[in-house]
Design a protein that fits this description.
The chain contains four helices and 13 strands. The protein is mostly beta strands.
Length: 304
């Protein structure tokens, strides 16, 4: 007799993804079209025989597993200021059996074979620098085209359906208009909070006679943003399409005057969350990196 078996959801604890320490000093005043990469450090084998000395490190993932990312919405430098979208591009990479033998990495290429040579590294085409094949791919989305139909006159030729495969970026806006300052936070019961909590959090520079409850803590300083007690993360679900994940982050070019990374301007909260607030605006201070703040990644499975 068959029995129904319920599969419990099984996910890993969070892996915290962050850029390399001190990224602000490298990227300050550089083009926003140069992405900040998580983690952005070199692969363990970079520079070894068969590996480019520039090969980026990836975060191991089990191919085919569900991947949940908690991506923080980086609020603007000040409420009511310019709105910038941060775009997160997921880049998947395959590893080979040699990577497993050396580093116990997950792999789905059965051979460790040389591919195209890098003649720039070698200095000439006659002495090529040989590299193993480690292909990478971007997260994609399919745009379904209109159904082919015959008309009078014919505007679309009948034929096969077409799905245009495009690279997908995940854009997270900095304005968070769905949780404006003070909106969405509940009142607390009388005498539930200590007296100094009256007036916390502030709402647009005003004071509350009844303190409000906080959904979140420890992500940004409430003095720097009225949105600090709100929910600042946006979960995103996908499926692992490789053996490793690299995340490249860029800022939208909403304003022609802000085509450079500026960590004591519009990108100060990006530095504050992912780094050290390296160029602190007035009223803020630098700090050591918060090791438990970043993009949270969970991998696993569930019955849906």
């Amino acid at each position: 007799m068959s029995q129904n078996v319920l599969a419990d959801a099984q996910f890993t604890v969070a892996t915290v993804l962050r850029p390399f320490e001190g990224f602000e000093f490298v990227y300050q005043a550089q083009s926003i079209f140069t992405p900040i990469v998580f983690p952005g450090t070199l692969d363990e084998d970079a520079g070894n025989p068969g590996f480019s000395p520039y090969l980026l490190r990836g975060t191991p993932v089990p191919m085919g597993a569900k991947v949940q990312l908690w991506i923080p919405a980086v609020v603007g430098a000040s409420e009511g200021g310019p709105v910038f979208d941060y775009s997160y591009l997921l880049i998947w990479r395959l590893r080979n059996v040699g990577d497993f033998q050396r580093r116990q990495r997950p792999y789905h290429l059965s051979k460790e074979s040389f591919g195209a040579s890098d003649t720039l590294l070698a200095g000439s085409a006659s002495a090529p620098y040989r590299e193993f094949v480690l292909p990478a791919a971007s997260e994609t989305v399919v745009y379904q085209q209109p159904e082919p139909v015959a008309g009078s006159p014919v505007t679309v030729a009948p034929g096969v359906g077409v799905g245009a495969l495009r690279t997908e970026k995940i854009e997270v806006a900095s304005d968070l208009t769905e949780i404006l300052p003070g909106v969405g936070l509940p009142f607390l019961p009388p005498n539930a909070a200590p007296p100094f909590a009256n007036g916390f959090p502030s709402t647009g520079g005003g004071t509350n006679t009844i303190p409000l409850g906080a959904y979140e803590q420890g992500v940004i300083d409430p003095r720097n943003s009225d949105l600090a007690p709100s929910w600042l993360f946006r979960p995103y679900f996908t499926v692992a399409k490789g053996d490793e994940l690299i995340i490249a982050v860029s800022r939208g070019n909403n304003f022609e005057s802000a085509l450079q990374w500026d960590f004591h301007g519009p990108d100060f909260q990006f530095s504050n969350l992912y780094g050290t607030n390296a160029f602190p605006p007035s009223g803020t201070t630098s700090h050591k990196p918060f090791p438990d703040l970043g993009i949270y990644m969970f991998t696993g499975s569930n019955p849906t």
